[in-house]
Amino acid sequence: MDRIDADQFFGHGTERTPKPRPFQTRRVGHPEKLNQSLSIDVQGWYHPTVNDCQQKNAKGLATRHLLKLMALGAVSFWLPDILWHVIRGSQFEGRDVIAITVLMPLSLSGTYTLVKRLPRSEEEKTPIFRWMLLGLWLFGGFFIMVEGSFLGAGFATSSDLSDFLQSLAMSFLPGIAYIMAAYDGSLGALLIVSVVPPIIWFVRAKRQSIVKS
Fold first, then answer.
1. Which of 111-147 are b and which e, b meaning 16 or more Cβ less than 10 Å from the residue's Cβ?
2. How many Cα neighbours within 13 Å face the side chain of 81?
3. Alpha-carbon gap, residue 210 to 213, rounded angstroms
4. How far lies 19's CA from each of 22, 25, 109, in Å?
5. Which residues contact 183 (CB under 8 A, 6 or more apart)?
């Protein structure tokens, strides 16, 4: 009887292929290049996104600044008119027209000087007065309606919500501030702040051009 080799019997001489382990990762190709490409892709997505967000924030900041300037122009100009009419009431007469014609431009001028001296960011470096002037023209009808409400007119005459919304919409119509200011007695002040500053700017620009030449 032939003797059986022990190594052959127990299998020590056979070559076994290892079974793959589950979830075992293998190093294939050049993973460092893969990581590098992923880094480039992330950077290519991240930086444009950040730039877009910064641009949107800058635009939002500039828009809010312009709205603030418009609100400041309207409040600083029309608030003295409202207070004067409320205090004088039915005793409002010609002398009061002269008073508000002087007081309202002075109030606007003082607010403009104060705002101009305040520190501003790059997004807020816009022409101040033109936006303040736009605000007082745009919201002029609204403020005159508010003034009339204290005296039993304006929004106080609205019978219901629909009537109020209609009056509110009409107060923002282009040019309505001019018409209502004529009845309010503040037309002179409105024309002063609308005509005099452009004339002053033109004269200064003309002088600077003469000096440079």
1. bbeebeeeeeeebbeeebbebbbebbbbbbbbbbbbb
2. 33
3. 5
4. 9, 14, 88
5. none
The first and second tokens of residue 162, run together, are: 């629909």
What confidence tens digit (pLDDT) does each residue in 134-181 have? 999 999 999 999 999 998 899 999 889 999 999 999 999 988 999 999
Does pTM top 0.85 for this prediction?
no
Q: H-type helices in the chain, by residue range? A: 6-10, 31-88, 94-117, 128-138, 140-150, 161-170, 176-184, 187-212
For tokens 């009537």, the residue is 163
**Residue 156 burial class via C-beta count within 10 angstroms: exposed 0-12, middle 13-18, buried 19 and up:** middle
CB atoms within 10 A of CB 39: 10
